[in-house]
Design goal:
Strand order of the largest sheet: 2-5-8-1-9
Radius of gyration: 21 Å
CATH topology of the largest domain: Rossmann fold
Number of helices: 15
Shape: globular
Number of strands: 11
CATH architecture of the largest domain: 3-Layer(aba) Sandwich
Largest sheet: 5 strands, parallel
């Protein structure tokens, strides 16, 4: 294990410790969020209101020394409200760019499915190319630009489903459930004192473990995480099987293959290893593939879920020895 990999593992360890001061429990959610960040990708966080989705992203930004911005998506939100616009300045007699909230490092797109497709699409160029075009002028965003989009899984009134092309831009779909009983009890006790999660973050008790420039350099450490050829073939076979499964109408594309490979390497690094195992691929298969697969209507009517299809595929594909 080289020095850069050891540095990455140390940063991940200290980052988890600092995040745990604010986010109680939810270790799996924190780990998957770190995977999205350290692979320079985006994540879709799905959870009911009140499970600390916004607080999670704010805390991640603080711990990793990055700028944070939040957009509350609503039906009347316009693309210019996200990207910004050119405004005529009377004193200088010229147009001046007023940057929108998209000019940040970590962007929380809160309740993204409440905005119509035209507004949702304002994020597409930024997510893919990390740049924004305003009035024919292209502006570069941060090299670490990361979108965390949230949506409520049980509320459909007044929402607009995400287009498949947009869902494919998200590396992971992270399901954020209610905390366990002990974690919720800990939260209740902290709320009676001065150690509520929000107060802890605001107090300065949570330290930044790196800055934005260091984050960019640390990503290269993942290149040293070994993926054997037989595991590469195993991973590709899993993704390709989603396109041939009898219950699937639309399977995962090549971008899913890339996402599963990168996230498996990052998952291995989080576990303190410099090599990928079949379990890393199995662990990341559902968060990478679930939002990319569309089932045939007759199977949906029978109550079959995408997660169940993925698990059946994992059982069908032979694990390399």
């Amino acid at each position: 294990m080289n020095n850069q990999t050891e540095t990455l593992l140390d940063v991940l360890k200290r980052g988890r410790e600092e995040i745990a001061k604010v986010i109680i429990g939810q270790q799996d959610v924190v780990d998957k969020s770190l995977i999205a960040i350290f692979t320079n990708n985006h994540a879709l966080i799905e959870g009911v209101p009140g499970v600390a989705k916004t607080l999670l992203v704010r805390t991640l930004a603080h711990v990793l020394g990055c700028e944070f911005s939040r957009i509350q998506f609503t039906p009347d939100l316009m693309p210019a409200d996200i990207t910004g616009t050119n405004v005529f300045n009377m004193s200088s007699n010229q147009f001046t760019l007023v940057k929108g909230p998209i000019f940040t490092t970590f962007l929380l797109a809160d309740e993204i499915n409440r905005a119509p497709a035209k507004t949702q699409s304002a994020l597409l160029q930024a997510m893919q190319e990390r740049q924004v075009t305003i009035d024919r002028d292209t502006h570069q965003l941060s090299a670490n630009f990361t979108v965390f989009a949230t949506q409520n899984p049980i509320e459909y009134e007044g929402t607009y489903p995400l287009a498949e092309v947009q869902k494919d831009r998200f590396m992971l779909k992270i399901s954020m459930a209610h905390p366990g009983r002990e974690d919720e009890l800990t939260l209740a006790r902290r709320m009676l004192g001065k150690e509520s999660p929000e107060a802890t973050l605001a107090s300065g008790a949570v330290k930044s473990v790196i800055n934005e420039q260091t984050l960019t350099g640390l990503r290269t450490a993942l290149d040293s995480v070994l993926v054997k050829e037989e595991l590469m073939a195993y991973l590709v076979d899993i993704v390709r099987k989603t396109r041939a499964h009898e219950s699937v109408l639309v399977g995962a594309g090549p971008r899913a293959t890339q996402a599963l490979l990168l996230s498996s390497r990052a998952n291995a690094a989080l576990a303190g290893r410099d090599f990928v195992t079949p379990d890393d691929i199995k662990t990341m298969a559902t968060p990478v593939l679930e939002h990319r697969i569309i089932l045939r209507p007759e199977f949906e009517i029978e109550g079959l879920s995408v997660a169940e299809v993925i698990q059946s595929i994992l059982q069908e594909i032979a694990v390399p020895r």
